[in-house]
Design goal:
By secondary structure, the chain is of the alpha/beta class. The protein has a single domain, classed as Spore Coat Polysaccharide Biosynthesis Protein SpsA, Chain A (Alpha-Beta Complex), CATH 3.90.550.10. About 30% of the residues lie in helices and about 30% in strands. The chain is built from 8 helices and 15 strands. Strand 7 and strand 8 form a beta hairpin.
Length: about 240
């Protein structure tokens, strides 16, 4: 049986959804897995809470720019996979709640990278819409100047595996061989996180990125005690 590391960067900002997230971690049914959390909170109180609940965790420095923190912590997680002899990484966001059998269902496809589906707010031409965090090439495969959202039929019709450009980092299963060649990164020249750059590098290295539209996750974004758009205005993204 393949060995899986289930991991996520975490922060006290998301304490509002931590009880449901931690319950979801414990509810994952795949037997050969370890859970590893990287806490980038400003203080140590949240970290102590996580340790007290029995999770394996690492504390990292809180930084002004959120993308710096998240990318750094994703690379800590990547190294944990490589050093620990894991076959897969299931990377999660702290506010994304996967189905209990998410690992089994995603692993069954035997793909290099395969994402579950989760929804959230997107700024589309100045209007905020709730859409899946998944993008496809709208013209040619590998044309990063032309990516677009999934069609309604691809979201809601019969369950299927879709080849995509990239997905949000909320719930993605990544094979070890991908992480051996690719580290997480981002560029300040583009208003994009390391999830998009993962897609770029997956494509450049000859791997393939898929999404299973039947593995739908709950995204706990509505009760956030902070406003992401305000953080962007402050230059913290």
């Amino acid at each position: 049986m393949k060995k899986v590391l289930v991991a996520a960067p975490i922060c006290e900002w998301y304490a509002y959804c931590y009880p449901e997230f931690s319950k979801a971690l414990r509810s994952l049914t795949y037997p050969r897995k370890d859970i590893f959390l990287v806490d980038n909170s400003e203080g140590n109180l949240f970290y102590k809470r996580v340790l007290a609940e029995g999770f394996s965790a690492q504390k990292t420095e809180h930084l002004h720019r959120i993308r710096d923190m998240v990318t750094r912590d994703h690379n800590i997680i990547r190294q944990k996979v490589l050093d620990g002899g894991y076959d897969y990484l299931l990377i999660l966001d702290q506010d994304v709640i996967p189905p209990a059998d998410a690992i089994e269902r995603l692993m069954a496809h035997d793909k290099d990278v395969v994402s579950a589906m989760f929804f959230g707010p997107h700024d589309i031409g100045g209007e905020v819409k709730v859409m899946p965090f998944a993008w496809v090439f709208s013209k040619e495969h590998g044309d990063w100047n032309n990516t677009g959202y999934l069609l309604d039929s691809e979201i809601w019709d019969e369950p299927r595996l879709l080849k995509i450009a990239f997905a949000g980092m909320g719930c993605i299963l990544i094979k070890r061989k991908v992480l051996e060649k690719i580290s997480f990164r981002y560029s300040l020249e583009m208003d994009a996180w390391d999830d998009r750059w993962l897609g770029v590098d997956v494509c450049a290295q000859g791997f393939e990125f898929y999404l299973d539209n039947s593995v739908k996750c709950k995204h706990l974004f509505k009760d956030r005690p902070f406003n992401y758009w305000e953080l962007k205005k402050q230059g913290r993204n």
